[in-house]
């Protein structure tokens, strides 16, 4: 019987420890990932249900750039408190606020399988879908829209007022809820 390299790779990837900075699955995307991973022709290689964060602005990516990360809805009072604390600690740094939408990387057995999942994600409302790898293995990247990103602290000074911060909270929470609905729709579509 010939060896099934796709299944071998799937088992190897899914048995590895979580290497994300959070060190665990995001609860809001866990069921979708489990559903995808239960299918013979797919497995997830990475996922995030979306997050809001404060991050040190730097051209080169490093491990210690995240100052504060929120994987759930945010409140004005918590964000204001964290922003003030961060401002005190970061006298000579540039800090940005960032809202990242949900993202999935899914290995697919064939191009036909990738196309099938592409169509389901499109119908579920995911806007940015494409292949990021197709030579050694076929990997589909699926991303929701709803990103926000802008400078918020410069040289120990907060660049926005409370009114703008309230708008950020409202927009971020709206975009997060919208993204989580798209996760649910894709859960229903994946069979």
Record the SSE blueprint.
Blueprint: H1 5-15, H2 27-38, E1 42-48, E2 51-56, E3 66-70, H3 76-89, E4 94-100, E5 103-108, H4 111-123, E6 128-133, E7 138-143, E8 148-154, E9 157-158, H5 162-189
Antiparallel strand pairs: 1-5, 2-3, 2-4, 4-8, 5-7, 6-7, 8-9
Could you list some keywords that capture this structure?
191 residues, alpha+beta, SSo0622-like fold, 5-stranded antiparallel sheet, 4-stranded antiparallel sheet, 5 helices, 9 strands, 41% helix, elongated
Task: Walk me through what this model shows.
It is built from five helices and nine strands, in the order H-H-E-E-E-H-E-E-H-E-E-E-E-H. Helix content is 41%, strand content 27%. It is elongated. The strands form two sheets. It has a five-stranded antiparallel sheet with strand order 3-2-4-8-9, with helices on one face. The mean pLDDT is 89. Strand 8 and strand 9 form a beta hairpin. It has a single domain, classed as tRNA wybutosine-synthesizing-like (SSo0622-like fold), CATH 3.30.1960. It is of the alpha+beta class.
Give the gist of this structure.
The chain is an alpha+beta fold and 191 residues long.
Helix content: 40-55%
Q: Approximately what portion of the residues adopt beta-strand conformation?
A: 25-35%
**H-E order:** HHEEEHEEHEEEEH
The helix count comes to 5
CATH class: Alpha Beta
Characterize the main sheet: 5 strands, antiparallel
Widest sheet, order of strands: 3-2-4-8-9
- CATH homologous superfamily label: tRNA wybutosine-synthesizing-like
